[in-house]
Hints:
Number of helices: 7
CATH topology of the largest domain: Pectate Lyase C-like
Low-confidence stretches: 25-35, 194-208, 383-389
Shape: flat
CATH architecture of the largest domain: 3 Solenoid
Helix content: 25-40%
Radius of gyration: 34 Å
Largest sheet: 13 strands, mixed
Distance between the termini: 98 Å
Number of strands: 15
Order of helices and strands: HHHHHHEEEEEEEEEEEHEEEE
Oligomer: single chain
Number of domains: 2
Amino acid sequence: xxxxxxxxxxxxxxxxxxxxxxxxxxxxxxxxxxxxxxxxxxxxxxxxxxxxxxxxxxxxxxxxxxxxxxxxxxxxxxxxxxxxxxxxxxxxxxxxxxxxxxxxxxxxxxxxxxxxxxxxxxxxxxxxxxxxxxxxxxxxxxxxxxxxxxxxxxxxxxxxxxxxxxxxxxxxxxxxxxxxxxxxxxxxxxxxxxxxxxxxxxxxxxxxxxxxxxxxxxxxxxxxxxxxxxxxxxxxxxxxxxxxxxxxxxxxxxxxxxxxxxxxxxxxxxxxxxxxxxxxxxxxxxxxxxxxxxxxxxxxxxxxxxxxxxxxxxxxxxxxxxxxxxxxxxxxxxxxxxxxxxxxxxxxxxxxxxxxxxxxxxxxxxxxxxxxxxxxxxxxxxxxxxxxx
Length: 389
């Protein structure tokens, strides 16, 4: 009977094949790491940069409030002042002091006055430093917002709490260094008339914020803007002080500003950077952007596609649903703006006024049975107002 045992050569080939499979198996995880998130999107990177910025801001506030060198100098001034006063008293008692002693007392007095002037707080300098600190805190808040899409909710809440504490410290420092003047009534109104303005003086704009071009001060109109025929993207655009209007915007935008809208419906194409919303009430907004920030808004539904988590602040009764806008060419525009993929961030809202772990009462996901679904705005005509509702 023939021997069925494998030959030595066959066994060697089998062992080599097993080793090759094991080698391929160990290589796969290394290849997968090549597609991992970049270092600047890691939690460790965020925590390190956030901690450094927080410590820098804290040091600046402490330096404004307590300057150890100033305290030492003030102690030296007090001692010098007492010594100078003693010399002045001697001048008054003893009229026969030598010229050298008189010169020494005079020099000491001048030196003390110079030191006192140097330790006086310069309001303009203090205000400049406090403004720089305020800007640094705002930049730190923006850094949190930009990083919120990859951070755990706990880290976002903790970072926002730290920012709130830094703002409280800045407020205390401002009150200490630049106290507000107390209000008091005047007995008699001034009878002087203000001087006539010079004809060369430019008129002062009463609007606090200079928004870019857009639709403003409209009521009960249908407003259409098409940026698709323009070279590149549509730049910045704004919607301000609209009431009971419908707005349809096609084409790419660089930024969109929405301010003081009431009972309006807004449908806009992709935005390459940010959408900033302030003071909307009773509206429906369908938007796609890398970042959406919503301030002081009430009873409004947002249909979003967004790369980072939407941010709400001082809002009530706002609801969120996925983006569903349609018109000719929007798919290509969404790809150009990096918004082709649905991230699900529309339902991961960060409420800057709610730092607890529980769900914020200020926003919720819009129930599916109440959503408007897909909206096609391909059939609207030329740019501008096209009539009344």
